[in-house]
Fold these 2 entries.
Entry 1:
Amino acid sequence: MATPSRYVGTAQSRLDGPAKVTGAAKYAAEFTAPDLAHGVVVSSAIAKGRITAIDTSAAEAVPGVIKVLTHKNKPRTAWLDYNYQDQVAPPGSPFRALNGPEIVYGGQPVALVVAESFELARYGASLVRVTYAEEVPNTDLNKNRDAAYVPPKKRSGIKPPPDPRGDAAGAYDTAPIQLRQEYKQAIEHHNPMEPHASTVVYEGDGKLTIHDKIQGVNNTQGYVCGVFGLKPDNVRVITPYVGGGFGSGLRPQYQLYLAVAAALDLKRSVRVVLTRDQMFTFGYRPETFQTVALGADNDGRLQALTHDAVAGTSTFEDYQEAVVNWSGLLYHCPNVTLDYKLAKIDTYTPSDMRAPGAVTGIFALESAMDELAYATGIDPLELRLRNYAERDEGEGKDFTSKALRAAYEQGAARFGWSKRKAEPRAMRDGRELVGWGMATGVWEAMMMQSSASATLTPDGKLELACSTADLGTGTYTILSQIGADALGLDLDHVTTRLGDTALPEAPLAGGSWTAASSGAAVQEACRKVADTLLGYARGMADSPLANADLAHVTFADGEIRLQSNPSRKVTIAEAMRAGGAETVEATGKVKPSMLTNMRFSAYTHSAVFAEVKVDEELGVVRVTRVVSAIAAGKILNLKTARSQILGGVVMGIGAALEEESMVDHNLGRIMNHNLGEYHVPVNADIHDIDVIFVDEHDDKVSPLGVKGLGEIGIVGAAAAVANAVFHATGKRVRELPITIDKILG
């Protein structure tokens, strides 16, 4: 079916924008019910030990307090760990709130106070008295590195490091240029605008309607059914809008468990909203120590590469990321050894945070490549070009496409890289040292099994439906663009419904796979609608399209036209009348090609160039310019796509210079658990960010040729900033974030 791209590939404003800026968009904590009660979580005051006594009498005596749930009176739930494991759970025993007196991490929920109003519940929570037998917490990853282990059970969807190739140790020992350094990534927390919340509406007869802060409603539904023994038909989850997730909403969090437990126990609706400081009591990007060793010849060509990483995980789950794998595929090198281990500490389980593993691993690799550039006297960009990988050497596969050379070229030209003075501290602007740095970014281009429905009415109105989530990325808009183009409709004639388990099932919104997966499902559903319409049109008496098939017609302006003679046409309304149909409905189901995945590797790539200015006396760093050149296949919406890269770069700047969850290891608790002390970039920190999308045709990665953009914008950004800081100051900081004390110290 040939369809002109009237909307796909253009810049379109978000269709959900007016609802968000006017307050019409409802989030998880904004839905209500006539019998709604409010729950407030009481968090543990220690990081490890046991509850020896819990006194709820004062709270229960407050008029309007309905009940206080603790480990002593919580409702009965499933026994097996299997029932608590969600779609992205790592191996281990998922955390169970109020499961017993044991305290396994700081801020663990120990009670839920349910009252007629939020204010009463919050007051009641302040009256709960908990007595503990405290133990010494073990939260220092550095002290546990010697006990690190290779996780025995691998996390589904996360590839372990590939087998070694060549003899990395031997090649390193004989290499003329040798470099070995350690790099560290601090703990980071997601901090989306919308805090985690669940509103559980009790419908009677054990039926629930749940509004949950989640990046995939089907994951919440499956979790609730597994834990509480409910049938899927009795649990509907509706999340039309998500106020940011960055991965924090991939797994059901403990406020959901508590809200559902209270609703079933009280047989009434319950809402539980976590406070901003409680947002620091679950998942995070884990602290990670990495060692990268590069051996090269005098021309800078890699002879040996080793990359070892040790990351923290909880005592109850083996959380895993692909941290070191990128080093085996990004550059050509005959001898590579990669190693990834975990160390258990007394914290909650880490969770996926925008480009999990890649942000961490690429910072170390690209910092090491920059150090190699200075050690060999080769321009950092030229060094990367000399080591350019034409295929995935880790997997032994060709790429579906790779336009990274074009990204290097166009990014460098836009940035003005050729004007860079090679020596550190050679560029100035008044009292500030000026530094230019660059890095490569890479992220998997994935497609997942997905489904979507399309319903067309005779007046040319199209409704698309899919259970996937829109995290603020523009999913409502791009799916509408695809549907409008597929059937030749005006964009304002297309309505898209998302985030509801009553809709065709889609995967979690994560991994940058939503556009490729749900977009392809929408395209397939519309193709089926088009096929049905054409069948109706061919059946008309004296039909101008009597012998046409989909390959020879075009849908445009509410008409089905013969490509070779557009004057031969049938309107959608005429076709539906001929078929006696009030609506035409179809469901599209798609899945990735196993054969393609076996034969090819698919990745997005980027070239990131950063300029920093560093106050020589004060050590204050400003990121004044960033150019991010992206190779990501077909771009569906230039406006929302650019926004995705802008957001990723901003997060990368935050990781480079500001974001750090600080743990007091004596207490085992995060100390800066608020947005006053956990620093994120603000308007004054962000200056010029220029985004380039290079042309990249890919007919293998997905039916739409798209690769996804959610993650690639952040990958490499922190490394580019760190490399620019070295160029400005001559001081190499190998620990993120790069704070003033590290520059002046």
Entry 2:
Amino acid sequence: MRRRLTFALASLLTLVLLVLTLLSSVTHWLPRLAGVWLPVGTRIALDASPRWQQGALRFPAVRYLVADCQLAGLQQLSLGYQHQRWQAHAQRLTLDTACLSRLPAANNSASAPRSLAQWQALLPSADVVIDRLIVNPYQSWAGALRLTLDPDAQRLNYQGDNLRLQADLQGQRLALRQLTLQTPTLSEPVSLHGSLTLTEFANGVPESGELGGDFTLAQVPHPLRFTLAWQQQQGRLVLQTPQDAEPLVDLPWQVTPQQIRIDGGRWRWPWAAQPLAGGVALAFSHWQQGLDATELSGRLNMLTQGRGGKGNIVLTLGPGRLSLTDSQLPLRLTGESKLAALQFYASLPGTLKGSLLNPRLHIAPGALLRMRGRLLSTLEVDEARWPLAGVSLSASGINGRLQAILSAHDTQKGRFTLHLDGRADEFWPDRGRWAWRYWGNGYLAPLDAKWDVQGTGNWQDSALTLATLSTGFDRLRYGMTTVNQPRLRLAQPLVWQREAEQAAFHGELTLDAGATRFDSGGYLPPSRLQLALKGSDPAHFLLNGSLQAQSIGPVRVNGRWDGERLRGQAWWPQQSLTVFQPLLSPDLKMKITAGTLRAQVAFSAAEQQGFTVGGHWVVQNGALWMPDNSIEGVDFSLPFRLHASRWSLGTHGPVSLRIKSINNQFLIHDVTAQLQGSWPWQESEPLTLSNVSLALLGGTLSLQQLRLPQRQPAVIRLRAISLSELITALKPKQFAMSGRINGELPLWLDNSPWLVKDGWIANSGSLTLRLDKQMADAITQNNIAAGAALDWLRYMEISRSWATLNLNAIGDLTMQAEVNGTGRFSQRERRVNLNYRHQENLFQLWRSLRFGDNLQSWVEQNAALPSSKDSKHEN
């Protein structure tokens, strides 16, 4: 008995040791054991020994490798058996599709394949749960997977952020209870549901079925509904809106063991600028050998109609293949697309390569896209060319050389040609790199100017940089002004950082111009405008700079742009007026000798409101010299506002003018005037000149108010004007006068054929007239009758003089005068009455200024003696 007990204990101890040995070496023998059933070249690797915990065998990590590539990786895997069901649970399962290409080819077995029912009979009762299933490189489709397996029914439940799937398989009938997809291209998720009947061996197209679903596109105003129905070897896919009976897509298809064909397919798109439509014909050959062996061929076309007639563009596919690992599908896009205003011409051969889930399009040599037509309302594109040879396109970006050539013209504004040449490396907006250079030239007809442009730039990830820029004109000719060789350059690169967390926009611009010449003869010296820009993006930035033309300026400028409106201010610090001497033509023979100027303005510009500027200009103690006269002591204050081509003068007080003196043939001093209102004026916004006053010839000239538009005359008042000072200034040799006169001249500048209507001039006190002796003697010798009368005008004391004046808009002056006085001759006195009517063009008279000759002619023709009863003798 004792011997049997000892043997039993020894056997138990040996068994325990054997189990412990197997468990301690499981990482070595279990992968080798599993390798018996695995494909050649594949293996399982355990990173740590499993352990038994809570009724389940737990593996920290299990990896499935193809050569040295990890096809699948399980983390925290547990296997257990409860309630007569196997339980499998893993925290994460990661699959790498890049390793699929390394799997060995399947061995052809001579044995008959198992049917779907036979495979289902082999399934154990099990529950499989994976908390996170990730398929690289498609992490956006990750989710949680739950499988419920029984021989008579199987159920799948997958829940992810962008993909949800619930399906039941019972025998050959598959019920798709829910399939929901969410992609960035769709504004709403796609929902799909339906049922289908699988073939007996589940190795072909289901025998019958019907699937339906709904989804929404941002470009389509209505929800879309699609249905897929088939029976045996043929079926139809239809996409339409609930409101329209005519489908958007209609694809009838047929299936044979050798080929899947779509013949007579149709599509249309009614929401484009013009309705689009076309046909579809596709063939998938050898489809039963798997996706990698399936050969694709076919064509799709699009019909258009617009400017230039009808167009047809055709996409030819294959023959080639699509693969999850290495696609090779030749394609070619050819034909013409005629839109409402544009015409496109394409010849684009290429090849689709790489994984079907992440394909890359390689464009072959000879690829060219051209365009012509009307791009804007007045801009006609003669030709735009995009050579695309060698360019590749994929989800990671554009690669290759990018070129563009644009030639266009505007019947009113001129013509131009632009070139762009650069290279892209895995570029999408805000990702990758695109570097370029550009150049071009043109002619701007309104300004009679030739221009050119050149520069470089790049787009690196989220930073968009204009590195260099040089653009300018040979000259700018506008109105009476010519600007020589203006040119805009970058002093510092323009950089736009587009990343939201680090948004920034900055750079510096310099505009240089040669002398700006005026047809009047003056010129503005070479000038420079410097601007620094700083903000968050091109729609939101501040500007700061200055404008200077040699000694003129600098004018300080700052402002801001908010995407809709440009606002800013400019300051002109006080400086001498003498710096503006170049603005005056040498032919004027004027010289600015003194004075200062300062100014401040604010401006605003927007597309809807236009350009608005307002501010204040101040000139102090200005002085101007000319050969025949000079002006001194000019003080000028101009508050203004300009909007919609209308000036508002005197916005914060009237425009004020003060002149100390004007030295001409006679001295004018103490000049004052005020101006307020709108230009151009209108009845609701008049322009008013007021408080005009000046001292001259010992008296004053004043104008109380002139309102435009004019409804009543503006009266110019003359007070105590000295005739002796006037005669001294005019220096006539034929006569002399003394005394003072008054007058009122009703002035019309608007709404009247008259300039002066019913004006008058009268003496203020006694007047004295003396005729030159030589002139009087000459008249007496030539005309005895006139000489006898003229003798009493050689010296005349005028007690009363009165003249009425009328002057029309073309300068015709009519003057009716009456003079009463006493003439002295040979120590005798005689009463003299003169009635005078004179007509002459005043504008011609001013040009001649021959007052003496006119007076002599008048006296010869009009002198007459009064009756004897008016005469008086004095010894």
